[in-house]
């Protein structure tokens, strides 16, 4: 069906926009909040438009997360593996995938049309999320945080300083591709 992708895209876009309109009407109805409610409603529409653009990347990330949960359940329940996914501190993926990020940047920057910008935005969103996780792993190693304490510290830092932490995590993840920061950290001996 040649128009299948367009129909699916239109249906998903309409649902996201309708949900944003419903939420915005609730906020706009809060007259006690005044001008602030109108700003929140406007922000909801902007977030909905971003979600419409990167819907394929969000679906891919959700699918990857679901596969991770399924693998964890299989290894934990069937094989009785104590650490089926390993430590977040060791999260990494093939360094060759930096080219997917570079292609995404080129598609967004070069004047190739609206379809290229959307494809590039999806590549950037998907790879940005993966590099953010890789950067969090590097941060946990560099800060020397272990176990559940590391997850709690990361969650609090992300909640309080999310723009700085997200940007730093992505930059660290990309930098780790070329310089392998975790290997350098483990090569340094304590007290040296």
Question: What is the element layout, followed by pairings?
Answer:
Blueprint: H1 4-28, H2 35-53, H3 55-78, H4 98-109, H5 114-143, H6 147-160, H7 162-179, H8 181-187
Helix pairs in contact: 1-2, 3-5, 4-5, 5-7, 6-7
Please sum up the structure shown:
Helices cover 78% and strands 0% of the residues. With 192 residues, it is mainly α.
Overview of the structural elements:
With 192 residues, this protein is mainly α. The chain has a domain of 105 residues. It is 78% helix and 0% strand. It is built from eight helices and no strands. Helix 1 packs antiparallel against helix 2, helix 5 packs across helix 7 and helix 6 crosses helix 7. The radius of gyration is 20 Å and the shape is globular.
Quickly count the helices.
8
Give the strand content. under 5%
The amount of helix comes to: over 70%
Mean pLDDT: 85
Distance between the termini: 65 Å
Which properties best describe this structure?
mainly alpha; globular; 192 residues; 8 helices
